[in-house]
């Protein structure tokens, strides 16, 4: 007979840790609201749409940006159960949040929209969960919609998972239909956590939040042992020692407890004020009796897109650094290092997971920390090799780091495997877009007569700019997109510099494929001509590859009418005044500075508008 370890008044067999995974906009947060309501975790007064989405940004955009943990108590067949739910984002840019949640769970609800069927991110998240041996509970959401097609979508889920059609739970987050069946499936199918309460403490940090009054709040899952209030603990990655000032469980508000034991999820406050001391994915252990084994299975995230973030006022540099550190605590995938630019002064080179991630970080800096920042043109990370040392790789995160063309042997750029699921009507336009972006079709599979899965290999740099927006346009919103890196390949890349008034603006430089360089350089010059305000002198805008100018536009000068005071008289008087004005403009052009508005740095992203 299996031995059951007792935890206080309840046994470990009565705990269930599960997360919710889905494609963006498949009703994940709404279903989480219904689960909270059904289990009595929230009262009628506390209920609101997207209850677990605490940021204004999440509510406005209708997307989940951070994963949120909450504990629910539920009585089933006379027994009391504790259900720890971790709600996760659905957008491809936030898949690192999903990987963290999965590492802390034994089961996952896979939610599929009954009207939209299986999408690219559904498949991606499913594979992530299967790698960690999670028990998958398929849920067919939004079955109450007039456009829902439950029978066909159920068949799609059965084909994908290899399960029986009876195992797919039909539900509606809007009406609450099927919620009881979901809770029953969680208790019946998700395995109880394994672990030994008497073993040395071993807990995984899966998230952390900065609180300006209490310091860093750490969210963890205990695998072995227990963590008590007042206990001396150690973080294994940083070797730092702390005292657990407060531990507790995560209900709608934090509930302080004397101890959190194996199998459970909770929060920890140690009074740490420095963001860098807490690493997400680290293992917490006891100071006196430490565990020898770190917890594996946590995925390190590599940034895909790099951009410079600079304060508008250079005096705010230190304030920006503090803001970035606090943001990094809430968002473990944000990577940044200090850098300086001739045009913008001191700032940071930041790594992001995608364009939405960049946009969210910029908006959070402005909203949460009141920082007005300038973001430079995003680019990806390249590997450069010189003629002198063809085997030594130079990492190029910034176009200004690229060696001169005469010294350059080759440049390798990151490639991705992109999966696009769309309606069969839009295969042509989607293929044309991908081929225009230097993509190669590797596979084409008809999932149903109506839906096609296209697989491409393409350079990451091509999807950084406007790819996702254009994909939605050509497919009338019906295409879903997911990608993962497949390594680096040699490419014929050149650095296009933008010169304003003869001076190179390093923040506007970009690494572009040689075939597209002329077109993009021309479009950039035309766009900047519209955005740069006119001065008292002509401003030449040039695009150059090395010493060769490939395009030029001119912002014409504002002309002051110096001859207005001449009434009649000899023409030489007017000529003399015009000559004097001409000399003044020439001198002004030599010493004059050109102010570049923020829109100019982001204009390159919208060259096709």
UniProtKB/TrEMBL annotation:
UniProt cross-references to CDD domains, sorted A to Z: EF4_II, EF4_III, LepA, lepA_C
Any one GO biological process: positive regulation of translation
InterPro entries named in the record: EF-4, EFG_III/V, EFG_V-like, EFTu-like_2, LepA_C_sf, LepA_CTD, LepA_IV, P-loop_NTPase
UniProt keyword annotations, A-Z: Cell membrane, GTP-binding, Hydrolase, Membrane, Nucleotide-binding, Protein biosynthesis
Residue sites binding GTP per the record: 25-30, 141-144
Location(s) in or outside the cell: Cell membrane
Main location: membrane
Entry EC no(s): 3.6.5.n1
Catalysis: reaction(s): GTP + H2O = GDP + phosphate + H(+)
Top-rank lineage group of the source organism: Bacteria
GO CC annotations, alphabetized: plasma membrane
Domain Tr-type G span(s) in chain numbering: 13-194
Task of the protein: Required for accurate and efficient protein synthesis under certain stress conditions. May act as a fidelity factor of the translation reaction, by catalyzing a one-codon backward translocation of tRNAs on improperly translocated ribosomes. Back-translocation proceeds from a post-translocation (POST) complex to a pre-translocation (PRE) complex, thus giving elongation factor G a second chance to translocate the tRNAs correctly. Binds to ribosomes in a GTP-dependent manner.
Protein name: Elongation factor 4
